[in-house]
Amino acid sequence: MHDVIFESDTPAGWTFDVGLLIAILCSISVISLETIPSIAKQELFVLEAIEWLLTILFSIEYVARLVCARHPLRYAFSFWGIVDLLSILPTYIGFFFVPQNQTRSFAILRSIRLLRAFRVLKLWRMMSDADELWHAVWNARHKIIVFLIVVMVAVTISGTLMYFVETIVPALVAGVRPEQYDSRFDSIPQAMYWAIVTMTTVGYGDIVPTTTTGKVISATLILLGYSLIIVPSGFVTAELSSRSESEKRTGDSCPRCATDEHLVGAIYCHRCGERLGRSHQDSEDPLRKDS
Amino acid sequence: MHDVIFESDTPAGWTFDVGLLIAILCSISVISLETIPSIAKQELFVLEAIEWLLTILFSIEYVARLVCARHPLRYAFSFWGIVDLLSILPTYIGFFFVPQNQTRSFAILRSIRLLRAFRVLKLWRMMSDADELWHAVWNARHKIIVFLIVVMVAVTISGTLMYFVETIVPALVAGVRPEQYDSRFDSIPQAMYWAIVTMTTVGYGDIVPTTTTGKVISATLILLGYSLIIVPSGFVTAELSSRSESEKRTGDSCPRCATDEHLVGAIYCHRCGERLGRSHQDSEDPLRKDS
Amino acid sequence: MHDVIFESDTPAGWTFDVGLLIAILCSISVISLETIPSIAKQELFVLEAIEWLLTILFSIEYVARLVCARHPLRYAFSFWGIVDLLSILPTYIGFFFVPQNQTRSFAILRSIRLLRAFRVLKLWRMMSDADELWHAVWNARHKIIVFLIVVMVAVTISGTLMYFVETIVPALVAGVRPEQYDSRFDSIPQAMYWAIVTMTTVGYGDIVPTTTTGKVISATLILLGYSLIIVPSGFVTAELSSRSESEKRTGDSCPRCATDEHLVGAIYCHRCGERLGRSHQDSEDPLRKDS
Amino acid sequence: MHDVIFESDTPAGWTFDVGLLIAILCSISVISLETIPSIAKQELFVLEAIEWLLTILFSIEYVARLVCARHPLRYAFSFWGIVDLLSILPTYIGFFFVPQNQTRSFAILRSIRLLRAFRVLKLWRMMSDADELWHAVWNARHKIIVFLIVVMVAVTISGTLMYFVETIVPALVAGVRPEQYDSRFDSIPQAMYWAIVTMTTVGYGDIVPTTTTGKVISATLILLGYSLIIVPSGFVTAELSSRSESEKRTGDSCPRCATDEHLVGAIYCHRCGERLGRSHQDSEDPLRKDS
């Protein structure tokens, strides 16, 4: 039974995992559809039925995992264990404690379990790609933190600047207090929200400069922000490039010191000078002779 | 006749293809213009005439292709064969079955045939570039799939989160049921649509957070989403870089010092001056003689 | 006088060019300001005076260039000659022929002359960078054309698709003719405009899907379009990377066959095997001895 | 005392810096919150109290820095000195001179001091990353300037073009003067603001083309602008890639075969097995002995 649940190599295990995957997708769609008033009205009973059915199935599965797991506690507090628990709790909580039952939508956390799909779909290779991706981001983490701090400072300052140009100044001109003056930039946090929406080039347009000065300044900030925001993408790309670059190295390891990172075409270990045994180089080597 | 239709090397074939290309462009513009009410009113007759003329021409061409093709069936079920058929069917269907004749716009599928233009315009080289492009995308396909799954999970979760912050919570505060509460995030699918529009930095602005909490959270999600969305572009770029990189080196290694990083077309090893043994260079080399 | 106008090496020539640059900047600001109603009302006379003064100066300069140029005709029909002419014509045309004098704004073409500033500011190096940039784009031109054709096909098809989902279908459901049905996607060209605005992630929000189906489809199109639109940036980056890569080669040319593209650290010419004379390699070379 | 304030190696200094950091974060939040009308009304007294407390603390710190600094004047006019001063002045100015006390928000300049956090958080490594980032941008500065000039010219021209298509032409058709004609593109500067917002793909949507011609032209401009705007990101990425690339190789060349592409830390040439003469490896090498 342990194999069926935790492995997907056996036919049974594979069937189990695929079924689980479908169940997760169903329940996510159900939870989503339930929130659409028009649908909720007509189909509520059907949806709730499916929802409950799935929740019970997931509960059984969770218990089964706990039972089968070699280290139940370790599983219970592992990432997947917590996700599995969180993905069933909301429905119960919603049922027992919240009459209006809104919390159930939290069950959407099940979507995280989709990542488990990787195992089912035999996407080992994908996972390794995901790892690579993660490493790329991880290697660039320091750069990203520096970048985020710089961005936050830029957002704070440009937000304050816009708040002044768009609210304080016009208010002074109009002779009213800023809080009475009607402006979209009605506070610094609001202006910072604008700055983030603008710098990432999302640009909703719900908050836009209206004064001429405001437009001039925001045009400048947009150009500066744009030059700022393209940087992290450069970092990630550079990181990924250098990775694909380093893949050009050979994995051959030195027979003496076992160093295994050699440039392509290396004949001698760059650590200990030992000759690397490669079939196509068994032909004796002129350089070595004269030494 | 086969050559005229399927090849573009002969003058006749070239003329045919260019004519075809122009015909396709015309018909696309016509179909587009027909949908503009103001134009449709005045010019309807002219447009319909052109449209019918072109459709008949395309039908004749299709029949001709079927007749000339060495393997009519294989052509009929090939990609181009199906496109050719789909590009004439809508007009007939629209005429015979749909009185209001809306389906005709489907004839816009003809635009796909424009890709055939590559052949006409002697853009073989472009096609090879297109291949390269396709390979770059293809090599990164696993990464892209992983990425899409991660994106969908992120979209689902952030959508649900925003639905809660923008609809459920305010509704509870206002003491009404969520479906009665007026909010732009009126369902989880709607919120997921918002999440996609936001993460890709399209940012229409038709759905925007209105509560303070909603703005704070969406600002965070925007920054996270932005860092997430720049990744695939990094992958494609890295892929393309490594391709253009590897095109610059040969794998041939020097017989004496085994240096294998030579510029394309190198005759002598740039390390030890040894002659590189390459079939196409066995002809003795004048420069060498005089030394 | 020729030197003063066409060269900027002499002090006089430099002063002339800087003055010209300032004049151009002034006139651009003036022309822009003239279009702002509030300003135009009060300052119209002043602005017009400056504008006329500058136009006359530019006319004198143009005549002077014609006179001094070694080949007046060649200058007159050169790129810069035409730009110089176009930058003064509008004001006169506006004055003599167009009473309401709108054409004058065309004088904004003067901004093109700012590119001449490079010469003044001794930005030769920048120009070379601009060349490099241009070459990068030029080398990727085939890819870019392929890309544009693909984009146009994608835009046409997705535009038509959205036109159907957002206008035709609802119209049929409502039982009215499409042109009577009120929708933002009121024609295929309009929908194509939406597709371009969306795929480039500009996302004005003036045209947005309103039906559920429309939102689902456009969400998909956005993700597809995004993956499509990141490609050219990948091409340009790859091109630029490989350029900065190839800069790592040495410019040293072989004393015998004058090949001048060698890998950094090459000792022997990869074309003729001749030893490359480099100071730091004059120390005799073990490899050479044993041959 | 000098160490406590200027260094963060001693426990005391570290505590001081962390406290300072927290104080800065507090005061920024306070200043931001003060601008939110709803909060300002209720909590004004509390917020002002905290604000004054922090300002006085910062003043004391500033004086202390002046006193402890080895070269008080040099500190006073250093970047950090000026920032420290500017971060306390606004509150006093607001108190003594401006009754409505708006200037205080300028105290948000304190956020710049957050960059000092790097020192506290022992983020030396991050700082070096920031340097690298800065160098990457700095190396690409000429390209960026060229790019900005080109962008400004493009913005000016496309802005003027849109102003004509959207305002002048319709006004002439309607037979009214442009300033009377109601259009979103009501002046060239306004149109230039639109051009910048559009080219950077921010796309607020507060100014959008309404005429058919305007839409066609802006669709073209968007595509052109997009191809233009992806270039600098390409430059930065290429710069970063080549940096991370060059960090992987040493310039040391092998004394025998002059191969100079060795992995960092290589002891023996990977081509000919010769020992690479490097100062930090002169200590004899155990591996070598046993051969």
TrEMBL record, chains A, B, C, D:
Membrane topology (UniProt): Multi-pass membrane protein
InterPro entries linked: Ion_trans_dom (IPR005821), VG_K_chnl (IPR028325), Volt_channel_dom_sf (IPR027359)
Positions of the Ion transport domain: 15-244
Keywords: Ion channel, Ion transport, Membrane, Potassium, Potassium channel, Potassium transport, Transmembrane, Transmembrane helix, Transport, Voltage-gated channel
Primary localisation category: membrane
Entry annotated with the keyword Transmembrane: yes
Protein localization: Membrane
Transmembrane segments: 12-33, 45-64, 76-98, 144-165, 216-238
Matches recorded under PANTHER family: POTASSIUM VOLTAGE-GATED CHANNEL PROTEIN SHAB, VOLTAGE-GATED POTASSIUM CHANNEL
Protein's UniProt name: Ion transporter
